[in-house]
Amino acid sequence: MLSSLERPSDETANLITHAAGFLMSLAAAFFLMRSVVLAGGGPRVALACGVYSAALVTLYLASALSHSFHDIKLRALFRTFDQACIFLMIAGSFTPFAVVFLNHGRWWMLLAAIWALAFAGVSFALRRREMSRRDKFAYAALGLTAALSFREIYNAAPLNVSILLLAGCLCYLFGSVFLGLGKKTKYCHALWHIFVLAGSACHYICIAAYIAAP
To answer: Which of 9, 22, 54, 104 is at a distance of 20 to 30 A from 114, taking alpha carbons?
Structure first.
């Protein structure tokens, strides 16, 4: 439901930013999978990049749809899907890094744990209609769980991988400030969307350059 301070122009900006993200993610997914095939990355890399691509496209689609309708029930439905897709996006973004740079020892257990937590988060989100502090805490906890592997990735991958990975995470972190202000200040939610675009762009470039076609 629109808050008392959220105006039609705010929703237009919210829609435009992530509708553009959806279109870009479709193109990005195509080129990513094409790169995997041309580089002969093998079935594991193809599966990991496919999971990431699906999570990326689904997130932007759900987000765009959540800002597309005036009908309260439809808005609530797609906003619920949007909130659930964030869990899939976090796990999906981590998957290619885990498959390529953490494919030894017990690190597979971390990947399995992250997906288990993500599915639990999806189940929880689908039962709620509005994002709460618990949801935001759950997103942060899932991201921090993935961050446990940062040192191992730093040691196993080229330096640029760590730089782009960290840059993307910082975009999400700084953008969350605007997410918190979204119901109080005009266009803050659209700014959150822009930070999400920047964060996912950093991770996409990293995956495309160093995982799909190294």
So the answer is: 22
